[in-house]
Amino acid sequence: RHTRFRGVTGVQTCALPICFPVTITKDVKYLRGLVVLRFPAYKVKFVPDEVYELVNLRELDISSSSVYELSARIGNLKKLRVLNVADCENLVTLPPELQTLEHLEKIKISRARYDRFVRCVPSLAHLMEWSPLEDYYHDEPEIDDAQDDEETAEV
Fold it and tell me: Using CA of residue 44, residue 27, residue 55, residue 40, what is the dihedral sign?
């Protein structure tokens, strides 16, 4: 079998486009110095075990993917600072092992998943954030009906 990354050195960021075959994610283990791994909108249903061997990884972005579970092995990623699971509609829980990651600074999530994820890892609630655009599109405008009535009456 041909390995796409064997012998590649010095790569710190890898963004896998949607058009790549799913097997490429297993080959990522050859990128031991990888700091950022992005495979958003990928059709994988799980993060391959090889990803959890990338001990230098600081950012993992699986946003908008079909991932339904993160392994307890995520606790191996001791240098992880940012986890992006926004718009992972199949992901219903976060592993408690995330709480062991001392350098974790941010967990990007979808606003709709906040309550569920906080129940999984309550000690990390302060790290969870969603896009301000979600607030813009989901919040109802605050309209003071009494003020509108007064303005209409004055006309």
Answer: negative
Nearest to 113 by CA among 67, 71, 151: 67
* Residue with tokens 């405008």, as numbered in its chain: 141
Strands (E), the chain: 13-15, 36-38, 59-61, 82-84, 106-108, 128-129
**φ and ψ at residue 70, rounded to 5 degrees:** -105, 135
**67: helix, coil or strand?**
coil
pLDDT in tens, the chain (155 residues): 444 555 555 555 555 544 444 455 567 777 778 888 887 776 778 888 888 998 999 999 999 888 999 999 999 999 999 999 999 999 999 999 999 999 999 999 988 888 899 999 999 999 999 865 554 444 444 444 444 444 444 44
pTM: 0.73
